[in-house]
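Appendix B: a complete holo record

For completeness, this appendix reproduces one full record from the ligand-bound portion of the collection. The bound molecule is zinc ion. The inputs are the chain sequence and the ligand SMILES; the output is the full three-dimensional arrangement of the complex, encoded as structure tokens. No fields have been trimmed.
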Amino acid sequence: MPSRPVRSRDELGFWEGADRHQLVIQRCADCGARRHPPVPMCGACGSVSSDYEASSGRGRVLSWMLSHHPNRPEDPPTVVILVELEEGVRVVSNLVDPPGPGPYEDLPVEVDFADQDDAVIPMFRASP
Ligand SMILES: [Zn+2]
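The structure of the chain with zinc ion bound, as generated:
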């Protein structure tokens, strides 16, 4: 059973970026406020115009948990992380190749792209 994420119209730009192995952040075309996950309207100014900008892909782990309920039953437990990117937006993702058993708070991480089934999923690993 494929675990391809559902691509809502609002998130299309995000997933098209992932397909290019680029982490992109939605940005209000009027006031410049960044937001994630992508939504139709800017929470800061109410504009419905937006575009995407490339993220550096670097950030820090704010919070994490070990999930014993992965998408596919045969998969090992995964480390789910809340990352604050350098651009100031927060992204929920997975930590791949965790450096030890944790804790991972404040760990510098950078994006890495996992080709899963027919989708490219942005994940993070510890920065070298
Ligand atoms: Zn705005």
